[in-house]
Amino acid sequence: MNTSPLSVFSQSTVRKSPSTEGLCCSSWRSPANIAIIKYWGKRPGQIPANPSLSMTLSNACTTNTVMAASANLPSLLINGDIKHPFHHKLNIFLEWMKQEIPALEGLTFHVETTNSFPHSTGIASSASGISAFTLCLLEIASQLTDVRLSTEELLALASYASRVGSGSACRSLYGGFTIWGASSLVAGSSDHFALPVNDMVHPDLADLRDAILVVSSKPKSIASSYGHQLMKEHPYERCRITQAGNNFSQAMLALQSGDLDLLGKISENEALSLHSLIMTSPGGDILFEPGSIAVIKKVKQFRSGGLPIFFTLDAGPNVHLLYPNNAKVQVENFIRQELMPLCEEGTIIFDHRGSGPLRLSQSSR
Ligand code: PMV
Asked: What is the pLDDT of residues 318-354, one digit of tens each?
């Protein structure tokens, strides 16, 4: 029995046929997210080893326009190219989507994609890119069939599906704070899709900001998909699962009570733990750059002066700084004066808690 929520499409009987003259088209803008509790390690079926928690951003986002045509071309073209750096990842995901949604079979998909953040800044674009692509594909599938979805249903299906393309992408479907992974602490949480938890968040944390310091724009030396695999034979695998579970519980308490200090300390512990796990993996690697360490040290020093500012990092050298809106002026002065010189070409993306994906257009002729 097919229990996938996407089976709603296989039960549909109608398949309209887009032609080269009559394209189906959908366009979405979807944000990146920053993980406070990191997803690192997974089980078969893209099941996370531990629950994760993230904040969806606003300014760091990807816009995708996807057009489907029944033409005798390669099945996927990204910005007119089959050699686009994202082609391999997106194509594997597209093949999976076609198995789930037969109406997508036999079509060519033209993807036009742009990131709001400067090109090759080393910011993980897979969460924003895959979530936007999934929304477009699902909307096209809906145009091709008699399946009609409310926006809420579309987002829920996209969260379920996009996790297969990139785990962290499933959290980008919702604004604010989002969790992915089954936890007894949050009713309705699941390993198969993300859940927004904003109704559990104290108002004091409603306006958190994130300055992304681009220390290096060089491509990462390990892809996160490889990093997840390395956790399977990691000597600290069991400890990590326990640690992540404890940090997740503490972070949920901090969110509910509005304890930024606790949330920030956990986010720093998660970032340093992630990098420690990468360093101690078989064939370990160092993803920090000297600038990353210099930023971290300066942040700790600045915080001892009393202002709330905390760091986190994904699997790369760039540093995310979290701070509340009421400290924006002082914190951003410090960032501009002390930290900007440590960034590549002074690149910083000033971002904040965002409200999730935005539909730009859809059309079916
Ligand atoms: O979604 P992936 O497979 O790119 O993995 C994301 C891993 C981290 O960014 C390090 C952590 C996270 O939860 O986003």
From this structure: 999 999 999 999 999 999 999 999 999 999 999 999 9
What global pTM score does this model have? 0.95
Structure tokens at 317: 């050298």
CA of 145 to the centre of ligand 1 (A): 33
Beta pairing partners, 213: 319, 348
Tell me the two tokens of residue 198. Answer: 């904003």
Q: Which atom of ligand 1 is nearest to the CA of 314?
A: 10
E strand spans, 70-153: 76-78, 108-115
Per-residue model confidence as pLDDT tens digits over 272-320: 999 999 999 998 999 999 999 999 999 999 999 999 999 999 999 999 9
Q: Pocket residues for ligand 1 (CB within 6 Å)?
A: 35, 38-40, 52, 124, 126, 166-168, 224-225, 274, 314-315
Task: Show the domains of the chain with their CATH numbers.
Answer: 7-197 (3.30.230.10), 201-352 (3.30.70.890)
Question: Cα–Cα distance between 27 and 197 in angstroms, integer?
Answer: 26
How far, in Å, from the CA of 349 to the mean position of ligand 1?
19
CA of 168 to the centre of ligand 1 (A): 5
* Best mutation site among 34, 40, 172 for ligand 1 pocket (most ligand atoms within 8 Å of CB): 40
